[in-house]
Amino acid sequence: MALVSDPNCIRLAMLGMVDGNGHPFSWSAIINGDYDAQAMADCGFPLIPAYLDEQPKEALGIDGAKVTHVWCDNPADAARVAHATHIPNVVARPEDVLGEVDAVIIPTDHGWEHVDRARPFIEAGLPVFIDKPLADREDDLRQFVRWHAEGKHFVSTSAMRYAREFARMQEQFDQIGQLRLLTGTMSKSWERYGIHILEAVFPMLTPGGWLTATNTGGEKSSIVCLRHREGVDVVLAVVDDLYGAFGCVNAYGTQGFLGEHFSDTFYSFKRQLETFVDYLRTGQPPFDFAETVEQIRTIIAGIRSREQGGRTVKLEEIDI
């Protein structure tokens, strides 16, 4: 059953913008299907106009959905996003979109803020998409679990779940024998970007089987060793300035190995956003919420391990 009154005319609000994250610009352009090229060139995130400008005009836009309202933490940013992506309404407060839109997108990647950012809309019964990571603290994860148990509608993913590069890689697993090791690399921090590389490899193993996390990183790095019930080790390295290895995944088996590098940002973002719109139209979640819970427990376990000197943390320690 649809979560919106008119599946062919879905009004979305884009709410929030934090340092180092230009999703309000890129996601609004992808959904609305048009953008001001000069304003986008001046958005402050050069990668965004680079991949948007590469797309044929017909690749942009999601039929039947529009971002109609925007709010940013800095009002000046909201005005810039609205101008660049043709959003007609800039609101003074996030709550001002209640009663005006059918669903909300929270495009920020500070996990510790997401409960507070999402609360007014989840409790009002609006469906919400929350950027990765859903949370990075145990008490916040428990709150999302409670909301889910109450039947509230929200989803959270990394775009790397939808990366065509990693899907192609997984289709070739029969060529490398029995899988023994997965490795992945990512820039920035485990708290904000660990979920990217975790969600890239997560579909390659059976959900419900992630056991432990050991983080031996330092101040600007996290080297996280994960153990899965299927006997596969996973090593994820998230290093502050490792931009040259953003989204690299390697799979090692008993008879060979495979490797892929994430590169098609536009494709992954559009599939991520299309999947949310499909969820609004059908009411069917794109995957089991238990997968998100398992991923966030893994992120929290990695944080706890690093804070405790590299102690191996069992995911079951993360109490939900």
Set down the secondary structure blueprint:
Elements: E1 10-15, H1 23-32, H2 37-41, H3 47-53, E2 65-71, H4 75-85, E3 89-90, E4 103-106, H5 114-123, E5 128-131, H6 138-149, E6 154-157, H7 164-170, E7 179-187, H8 190-201, E8 210-215, E9 221-228, E10 233-239, E11 248-253, E12 257-261, H9 265-282, H10 289-307, E13 313-314
Parallel strand pairs: 1-2, 1-4, 2-3, 4-5, 5-6, 7-10
Antiparallel strand pairs: 7-11, 8-9, 8-13, 9-10, 11-12
Helix pairs in contact: 1-4, 5-6, 6-10, 8-10
Mean of residue pLDDT? 98
Biggest sheet descriptor: 7 strands, mixed
Strand content: 15-25%
Q: Strands of the largest sheet, in order across it?
A: 12-11-7-10-9-8-13
The unreliable regions are none
Helix/strand/pairing class, anyone?
Answer: alpha/beta
What is the rounded distance between the termini?
A: 29 Å
The value of Rg in angstroms is 19 Å
Shape: globular
The percentage helix is 25-40%
Let me know the number of strands. Answer: 13
Number of helices: 10
**Which H/E pattern describes the elements?**
EHHHEHEEHEHEHEHEEEEEHHE
